[in-house]
Structures are given as structure tokens and as C-alpha cells.
Design brief:
Shape: globular
Oligomer: single chain
Order of helices and strands: EHEHEEEHEEHH
Radius of gyration: 18 Å
Largest sheet: 4 strands, mixed
Strand order of the largest sheet: 2-7-6-5
Low-confidence stretches: none
Structural class: alpha+beta
Helix content: 25-40%
Strand content: 15-25%
Number of strands: 7
């Protein structure tokens, strides 16, 4: 497994191709969303959180990859730079019962969000301000870009990045020697002939 050139069209892994095919047959569904809602207590610098999420997207190509059909084959296009905006819902002025109802609505909206595999970032984030020291961070990805395990990795990296930036330092995260696209190419090369 080694870094492959990004100068040619990149194939999908077999798992990605299955998810892409399902999306072509039944578009606009949220069944393959991976979701997390994280409670945050204490002071929160929302601008810094947004910068931390943008860095996460820059670090992981898969989060800024879109999927297209070329010559009857799906390919992945890795975008070098994608704008990211953290959605903020300030619910502090609401009474507690109304606020909880609105929180439930927002989290349901995020659960039902339909990623457009040809144009969306593969990570959505939304912060809900409940009180001055109480927040909920909603994170969603499409399964073509993550799974439950990788969502945990991204969450840990987000916490490490935010904590480092908050203290005026650079995050201490190891460089990624390969990305998921490199795995997809390796898998395609390996699963041929008898192995396939």
C-alpha cells in the first residue's frame, strides 16, 4: 500500500462502488449516514471549532471527495480545497421544554440529510448552543466516506486539533502516509484473477 498519483481518475473501493450504485438506483436517501451527537460542557470557541473541522477536512481527502461517472465507471475526485462553514443554532433564548423539542427537530433534520455524492462535502457539522456552557455538536458523514470506527478517529482528531489550537499550538497528529483512495487502488490491484 503506497501513495498513488492523483493525476489520473481514481477508482472506488468495492464497498464504495456498492454504495455509489445504491445511490444511483435510489437517490436522495439518508440510510447510509453515519451520525454522532456530542455533548460539550464549558467554554467553547465556535470559530476555533470551525477551524478545527476545516483542518480535519483538509487532513482527510475522503471528506472532500466527490463521486462521478466517467466512461460508464464511477470515479472519485479529490478536491484540493473545499470551503467549510459550521452551522450554528443559538437556542439559548428558548424555555427548556421548547428548546428540547427544537434540539430533537434539528438532530432529526441532520439524521435525514441527504448527501449529494457528486457535490457535497462528506462531513456535516452543526453546533447547538443550549446555554452559555452547554452545547451539542452534531456530526454526520456518508458511509461512502466513513464508518463507525473512523467516526471515532475523526472525533478524537477533532478534539486533539481544537485543544492544540486553543492553547496556541499546532496539533500533534502524525502525517498520513496514505489515504483511502490509495487503499482503493491497492484493493483493485490485489483483487484480480483468482484472488477476485
Amino acid at each position: 500500500l503506497y501513495p498513488a498519483s492523483r493525476e489520473q481518475p481514481l477508482p472506488l473501493s468495492y464497498a464504495q462502488q456498492s454504495l455509489w450504485l445504491v445511490e444511483q438506483m435510489r437517490p436522495g436517501r439518508s440510510a447510509y449516514n453515519i451520525k454522532a451527537a456530542l455533548g460539550i460542557q464549558g467554554d467553547l470557541d465556535i470559530d476555533l471549532l470551525e477551524k478545527s473541522l476545516a483542518r480535519l477536512i483538509q487532513r482527510h481527502e475522503i471528506l472532500r471527495t466527490t463521486y462521478h461517472e466517467t466512461e460508464d465507471e464511477p470515479v472519485q475526485i479529490i478536491h484540493s480545497n473545499q470551503l467549510f462553514k459550521l452551522e450554528v443554532d443559538d437556542l439559548q433564548a428558548m424555555v427548556s421544554s421548547t428548546r428540547q423539542h427544537r434540539v430533537d427537530q434539528i438532530l432529526q433534520e441532520e439524521e435525514n440529510y441527504c448527501f449529494d455524492l457528486s457535490s457535497s462535502l462528506m462531513l456535516r457539522a452543526r453546533i447547538l448552543k443550549l446555554t452559555p456552557g452547554d452545547f451539542i455538536l452534531s456530526l454526520s458523514t456518508h458511509h461512502i466516506a466513513s464508518d463507525g470506527w473512523s467516526m471515532g478517529v475523526m472525533t478524537n482528531e477533532l478534539v486533539a486539533t481544537y485543544s492544540a489550537l486553543l492553547s496556541g499550538q499546532e496539533p500533534d497528529l502524525a502525517e498520513l502516509s496514505v489515504q483511502y483512495a490509495d487503499y482503493a487502488i491497492w484493493q483493485r490491484d490485489w483483487l484480480q484473477g483468482n484472488a477476485l
